[in-house]
Specification:
Blueprint lengths: L2 H10 L2 H20 L1 H16 L6 H21 L5 H21 L3 H44 L4 H35 L1 H11 L8
Helix pairs in contact: 1-7, 2-5, 2-6, 4-6, 4-7, 5-6, 6-7, 6-8
Length: 210
């Protein structure tokens, strides 16, 4: 088995699902930006409580990894019901990212800091989330088509053979998501705060690690 070709196949053959999820993510992002100021009083306290009052540390990095991997697995199995969990998750994540952009980006300094605190780990975390959501939808499609084939009087073995590629792609994408979440969590915990702090001080801003 050529792992590289298997991974490429999993992404290429499911590009339509990725495209649909991207549209949903962008829709969430845009709505988050538009309504950011209107819902800030409600959403910001919730986000601050979720992120914690203190700066990130090495312990937090492993908490982030656990949370992200748990979320990936939850999305994967939760999407068995018509892929709804994956669709809602990608929309909510887009909405939160858009909300943070709309609420915080008021100046050039804020824009630069937003990018500095999002991009280092976001380049791994966002693709990981798309992969886990796509994996969840593929798991739903595998089960749905398996049952559909069996209703048509096919045996379980025949139905499995007809649809096993969906399951294979789902598992490949889930494993990739977990690896990417691992990398993203380490970067978010150990590197992102320091990059943000350096840029903040270079721009004459505060020490964000204090």
């Amino acid at each position: 088995m050529n792992i590289k070709s298997e991974i490429k196949e999993a992404y290429v053959e499911n590009k339509k699902i990725f495209a649909i999820l991207l549209i949903i993510f962008i829709a969430g992002f845009v709505l988050g930006c538009i309504f950011a100021d209107d819902i800030a009083s409600v959403l910001m306290p919730m986000l601050k409580e979720a992120m914690g009052a203190e700066g990130l540390s090495s312990v937090d990095a492993f908490d982030i990894i656990f949370h992200n991997v748990f979320t990936a697995v939850l999305v994967f199995f939760g999407s068995i019901i018509f892929g709804i969990y994956a669709i809602l998750s990608i929309f909510v994540n887009g909405f939160v990212v858009g909300f943070m952009a709309g609420h915080t980006i008021k100046t050039t300094y804020a824009l630069i800091m937003y990018l500095a605190l999002i991009l280092p780990h976001g380049i791994f975390e966002i693709p990981a989330f798309f992969s886990s959501c796509t994996a969840g939808i593929l798991l739903f499609l595998f089960i749905f088509r398996l049952i559909k084939d069996m209703i048509k009087k096919n045996t379980f073995s025949q139905s499995y053979e007809n649809n096993k590629k969906n399951l294979k792609h789902a598992i490949i994408l889930l494993l990739i998501a977990i690896v990417l979440f691992l990398i993203a969590g380490l970067i978010e915990g150990f590197i992102t705060p320091h990059i943000g702090n350096i840029i903040s001080q270079q721009l004459g801003g505060p020490d964000i690690l204090k």
